[in-house]
C-alpha cells in the first residue's frame, strides 16, 4: 500500500488511530491543523507546523527567498488565525543545499521575520542542516488563545450562514500563471494574483475580530480549497452545507486571468486552495454586526456564500443554473493527483 | 559567499544578528538548541526542533523507519534533557516520496511515539507533504522546566569539575561501521555501537536528577562532539577548560571497534558527536553526592573528565603523554567538511 493510495488525510487519520489516547493536557491533538494544549489555567497554548519542500511546494527560480520566507510564515500564521488565536513564537528548521549563498538565507529570514513581526510574532529558534536535495523550510508557530474565544472546525449549527473573508481563487490563478507563463493577461491583474499565491496575507487580525465578537460557531482557513475545507467543518460539526455559486466572491483580477487562460473561475474558487482566507459560520441574526465589525476594524470584506443544513442533506452547490449539485471535496490533497 | 564558507554556527550567528531584539517573553532565543519562553509565572516553556534529511543525516537502506522515528525523537528529547526540563508535546513534519509504503509511515510513527512515551511526551500534531527528494523528518518538541532548576550553557565557574554521563565515541564508532561495513569486530561490540548511533538514549531522567540536585552550574548535550560542545559552554560561560584524555569514559565495545578499524578511540570520543550524553559542570564539593544520586536514581554512571579554568587559559587537553595541548572545537559542523 503506497501513501499515494491513501492521500494525506487518510494517512493522518491512520496515524492518529495508531497513537495512544491523548493525555488530559491535550485539548485538540493530531488530525487538526493546530494542537491545542492546556499549559496554564487561563490560556490555551497553540502549536502548528508546516513544511515547504522545493519541488512539490515551490520552485527556487519562481519565488525569491524573501517571498518564500513570508509565505512559510504566512501559512502557519493562517492556522493560528483560524482558531482566533494570537501568534507568538516561531521556530524554523532549514535544509539547505551546499550551493546556497548566504544572502539567500539572509533574505529568507528577512521574509520570515517581517511576516511574523507584522502579526506580533518573533523568531526564537531554529536549526539548519545540509540538504542534498533542495531547500526545505519547516516553520513551527506557537501561539495562544483564550479558551472561551477559541474557534474550532466543530461547532457549526444547522441554520448558520457560511461566510468567507476576501476573494477566492486568486492564488490558484496566480499559480496557473506562474506555471504556464504570462500570456495575455493585463500586467496588473497578473501581478495581483501572482502576489496572492506567492505571499498570501494571513487573516490574523480578522480571526481575532471574529473570535472576540463571539458571533461565530466554527472556523477554518482555506488552505486546501473551499470545497475541501468546508468538508472538514461539515465532518467535525456533523452537518451539511449549501454553497451558492453566484455568491462566491471572485476578484476582477482572477476573473480576467481565468478568461485569458480559458479556465472556469468557479473551479479555481471552489477547488484551487492556498487562498488562506477564513471560512466561518455565524447564526443568521449575528451576521450583519460581525460583517460590519470586520469591515470597521480590519477593512476586510466578508461575504455570505451559503448556509449550514442537516447532515442528511449533504454538501451541495447551488450552481449558476439554479441546480443543486453534490460538491465534491476535491481540493488539493498533497498525495493525490491534482484535480 | 556560500553557506559552506560560514558553517552552521557562523550562519546561525549571522541570522541572530539580523533579527530584532527578543521580546520580554523570550528568556533564551535563537542561537541555543532550545528556546525558553516565559508563558506562565511559575514555569518556563521550552521549544526545540531538529530536522533529519535523507542523505546528509541518514540513508534509508541503513536505518529502519522504526529506528529513524526513535532517533528523531531522541535527538530532540536530548535537547530538553540538557536544560533539566520535562518533555511534553511532539509535533512532526514529514516529507515523503511517493514510493513510500504506508507501513513505512506506520513504523516511523511507532518509533516516534514509543520514544516520546518512554520519557512522558506525546505526539499532538503534525503534517505530511509529498517530497520529490527523499524522506524528511522534522520534529518539534515542547517541554517545560521550573525557572530555578533550569540549566544553561552559561553558568560554569572556574574551579568547577566537568562531568559526562555514560561513555563517549560509541555513536561515531557505530557510524563508521555502518558506513564501511562490519569487518572483523565481534558481532556483540559492533551491535552495541551501531545501536548507540541509530537509537541513542536521551538522558532525560539524568538531566532531571542533575537539575533537581541544584548541584550543577551549566549543562549541554553532546550532539556535535565533546570538544565542540564544551566549546559552547566555555564561550557562554566565559571560561576555559582542561580535559584529561585518560579520564574520558570509553566503552569496551568502542575500543574494540576502534582497534579493528585502526582508528584512534580518543578522536571519536572528542570529535565524533551524536552521543547525546550530558556534559555538565559541578563545584568540586558537590560532585560526589551528585554522582551518587545519578547512580542511585538512574543507574547511569557520570565521570569527572576535567576542570573549568579561566578564559585566559583557553581550552586544552591533557593528553596521554602528559602534555597540555590546545583542544580544537572541530566537532561535526553541518556545513563544513567533516574533520
Summarize the structure.
Chain A is of the alpha+beta class and 339 residues long.
What tags apply to this protein structure?
disordered C terminus, 37% helix, homodimer, alpha+beta, six-stranded mixed beta sheet, 339 residues, seven-stranded mixed beta sheet
What does this structure look like?
Chain A has 339 residues and is of the alpha+beta class. The first copy, chain A, is built from ten helices and 13 strands. In chain A, the strands form two sheets. Chain A has a seven-stranded mixed sheet with strand order 8-10-7-11-9-12-13, with helices on both faces. A six-stranded mixed sheet of chain A has the order 1-2-3-6-4-5. In chain A, helix 2 packs parallel to helix 3 (102-118) and helix 5 (187-198) packs across helix 8. The model of chain A is unreliable at 331-339 (pLDDT under 50). At the A-B interface, helix 1, strand 2, strand 3, strand 4 and helix 3 of A face helix 1, strand 2, strand 3, strand 4 and helix 3 of B.
Label the overall shape of chain A.
globular
The average pLDDT of chain A is 93
**Order of SSEs of chain A:** HEEEHEHEEEHHHEHEHHEHEEE
Strand order of the largest sheet of chain A: 8-10-7-11-9-12-13
Could you list the spans of chain A in which at least 5 consecutive residues all have pLDDT below 50?
331-339
Question: Biggest interface in this structure?
Answer: A-B, 80 and 80 residues
Report Rg of chain A.
20 Å
Quaternary structure classification: homodimer
Portion of residues within helices of chain A: 25-40%
Helical/strand content category of chain A: alpha+beta
Number of helix segments of chain A? 10
Number of strands of chain A: 13
Spatial gap, N to C terminus of chain A: 22 Å
What percent strand of chain A? 15-25%
Amino acid at each position: 500500500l503506497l501513501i499515494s493510495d491513501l492521500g494525506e488525510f487518510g494517512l493522518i487519520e491512520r496515524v492518529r488511530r495508531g497513537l495512544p489516547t491523548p493525555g488530559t493536557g491535550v485539548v485538540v491533538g493530531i488530525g487538526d491543523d493546530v494542537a491545542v494544549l492546556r499549559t496554564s489555567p487561563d490560556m490555551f497554548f497553540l502549536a502548528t507546523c508546516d513544511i515547504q519542500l522545493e519541488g512539490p511546494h515551490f520552485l527556487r527560480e519562481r519565488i525569491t527567498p524573501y517571498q518564500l520566507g513570508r509565505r512559510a510564515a504566512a501559512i502557519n500564521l493562517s492556522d493560528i488565525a483560524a482558531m482566533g488565536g494570537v501568534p507568538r513564537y516561531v521556530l524554523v528548521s532549514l535544509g539547505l543545499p551546499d550551493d546556497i549563498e548566504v544572502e539567500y538565507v539572509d533574505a529568507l529570514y528577512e521574509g520570515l521575520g517581517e511576516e511574523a513581526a507584522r502579526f506580533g510574532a518573533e523568531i526564537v529558534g531554529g536549526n539548519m542542516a545540509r540538504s542534498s536535495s533542495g531547500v526545505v523550510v519547516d516553520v513551527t508557530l506557537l501561539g495562544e488563545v483564550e479558551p472561551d474565544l477559541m474557534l474550532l472546525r466543530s461547532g457549526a449549527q444547522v441554520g448558520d450562514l457560511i461566510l468567507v473573508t476576501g476573494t477566492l481563487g486568486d492564488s490558484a490563478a496566480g499559480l496557473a500563471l506562474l506555471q504556464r507563463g504570462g500570456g495575455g493577461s493585463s500586467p496588473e491583474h497578473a501581478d495581483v494574483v501572482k502576489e496572492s499565491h506567492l505571499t498570501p496575507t494571513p487573516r490574523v487580525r480578522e480571526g481575532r475580530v471574529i473570535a472576540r465578537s463571539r458571533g461565530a460557531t466554527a472556523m477554518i482557513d482555506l488552505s486546501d480549497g473551499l470545497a475541501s475545507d468546508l468538508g472538514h467543518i461539515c465532518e467535525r460539526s456533523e452537518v451539511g452545507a449549501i454553497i451558492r455559486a453566484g455568491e462566491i466572491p471572485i476578484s476582477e483580477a482572477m476573473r480576467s486571468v481565468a478568461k485569458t487562460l480559458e479556465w472556469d473561475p468557479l473551479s479555481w474558487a471552489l477547488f484551487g486552495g492556498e487562498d488562506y482566507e477564513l471560512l466561518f459560520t455565524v447564526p443568521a441574526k449575528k451576521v450583519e454586526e460581525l460583517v460590519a465589525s470586520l469591515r470597521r476594524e480590519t477593512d476586510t470584506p466578508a461575504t455570505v456564500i451559503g448556509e449550514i443544513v442537516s447532515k442528511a442533506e449533504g454538501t451541495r452547490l447551488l450552481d449558476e443554473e439554479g441546480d443543486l449539485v453534490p460538491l465534491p471535496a476535491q481540493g488539493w490533497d498533497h498525495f493525490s493527483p491534482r484535480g
